[in-house]
Amino acid sequence: MREITIGQYIPGNSVIHRLDPRTKILITFAFMVLLFVIDDFAGYAFPLIFIAAASLLSGISIKYMLRGLRPLLIIILLTFVLNLFMIKGRVIYEVGPLSITYEGLYQGTFMVLRLVLLIVGTSLLTLTTSPISLTDGIESLLKPFSKVGVPAHELAMMMTIALRFIPTLMEETDKIMKAQMARGADFSSGNIVKRAQSLVPLLVPLFISAFRRADDLAMAMESRCYRGGENRTRMKTLKMTREDLFAFVATGIFAAGCLASRFLW
């Protein structure tokens, strides 16, 4: 549970850390979109190089970012298995009524790689951006939509708080699970129904703890006279620099490579 990296922030003074949060949010969004443009394994060379370069510039190792995949291994494995058995084609091996095909193996591996790159790429955003900067960046990007009634500040605050509390809730879940196991609880044996029933002693205190944390956070914000984004001032204003321009140029080259791999090669 503690291995999840999405939502965590590692302080630093690298080139990636110094980028404007709006730049990192836009680049992350473009990265996510372009991952779905790629339709073959050769095209994945571009996001792999992009992530390797970003990891080198940020000072955060790819090994650390890959640790965030451990809590999601079940989802990744399920994605691979569903594609492996559900896609029809040339049969490699038959298991009862199910059959493994070349096309299923190709598509399953392709989707798993896309999912891994998606998780690693998005985790790099939160690892190099503080929650306050992330809130300011999201609010600034959503501000033009406030003219049509979109609550930009409230949405930015909600998304940032949700990301911020993911590691906290995972750590709380780990503590409750260990405490329940010390009292004799068994979360690993039995069929699916019994395992689901064994999760009740885990979910009840987890929900109580989450509501308590939410109440404490609300009281802390009210005690500091928080009244939303109206007339709110900032000690540091967001300002893009030459580094942000270089980042956009690098993203443009990456996008051109992805589009070329899809439509030209």
Give the helix/strand layout.
Layout: H1 15-18, H2 21-35, H3 45-58, H4 62-66, H5 73-86, E1 91-95, E2 98-101, H6 102-127, H7 131-142, H8 152-182, H9 192-198, H10 200-223, H11 242-263
Antiparallel strand pairs: 1-2
Helix pairs in contact: 2-6, 2-7, 2-11, 3-6, 5-6, 7-8, 8-10
Q: Could you walk me through the main structural features you see in this protein, from its secondary elements to its overall organization?
A:
It is found in: Cell membrane. This protein has 265 residues and is mainly alpha-helical. It has a domain at 1-129 and 236-265. Helices cover 66% and strands 3% of the residues. The chain contains 11 helices and 2 strands. It has helices at 15-18, 21-35, 45-58, 62-66, 73-86, 102-127, 131-142, 152-182, 192-198, 200-223, 242-263, and strands spanning 91-95, 98-101. It has a two-stranded antiparallel sheet with strand order 1-2. Helix 7 runs antiparallel to helix 8 (152-182). The chain is flat. The two termini are 42 Å apart.
Question: Main traits of this protein?
Answer:
2 strands; flat; two-stranded antiparallel sheet; 265 residues; mainly alpha
